[in-house]
Please model this.
Amino acid sequence: MTIRDRVDAIRATLFTGLLAGCLVLGIGSAGLTAVAQVRANAPQIGILSFGPPPAGTDADPERGVRQGLRELGYVEGRNVLVVRRYADGKPDLLAAQAAELVRLNVDVILAGGPSTLEAARKATRSIPIVTISGSDPVEAGWAESLAHPGGNVTGVTVTFPELDLKRLEILKEAFPAITRVAVLTDFGPDQRFKDQREAGARRLGLELLFIQAPHEDDIERAFAIARQGRAQALMAVATNAIVTNRSRLAALAQADRMVSVSEFPVMAQAGFLLTYGADLDDLGRQSIAQIDKIIKGARAADLPIERPTKLRLVVNLKTAKALGLSIPQSLLSRADDVIR
Model:
């Protein structure tokens, strides 16, 4: 049986269930035909997520995606089918879940973060992929240029060296006495990554200690290294495993009396003291706009890779109070959001 045959069989099963439901509800044949036509023609979007399904305890990372769908006239189950796969923070699950989306022959895959992008790229070179990625697309090898990616991947790139340096500037402005910062990643930073950030840090009178925590089990060890290195602050590079474990990281930083800094507002909502960067809701809407173009016939190879349209500064005063710290009014007046 071909992939298309399997997809047709799945749709036939869905239609059978829909038929039974319509009969129970008393929907007539004309209405049933209209529903069946919409279902049969609906594009399928596959969402590959590193983290767990939204549970309501933290800010919902898919809220912007749903907003983007609504704004462009898409209604799930009516004129678009969304297939979600969650790795629940387990990197080993990503390859199988990406392969499953490919077997289902979805029309486009949304892959948020470097780990999910890597899994999706390994699974397919033909299905278009839209990514919200922290890597440099050209340097990472999945795009010829930002203006013309040239392959089956496009999307939004959100992490670049100047933003990390801006976060360090904000940290130093708020707390001038800080001199040692632990930089936490879930990947092994190469020398160029380190050099770009260390050069700017030296100008601010900061020393950086790079620590890698690729898995949840590595987090306690990472904080032990930060304590041994006498780190006064934690800057977490907000890629997949970091964002998934944001509440735990914020709590551990607070327990160690470290100022915590990161990128997305969702990190501040989880307890980080300061964040500066793109808003995940905005990125979700931005990625859906690109998916809409692909559904309507555009090629990923020809869609320029975008940067965030807006950057937000968020200050968590609850965390500051727990640490016994005060935030300068000059910084509070510039903040886009203050969590009290």
Q: What stands out?
A: The chain has 15 helices and twelve strands.
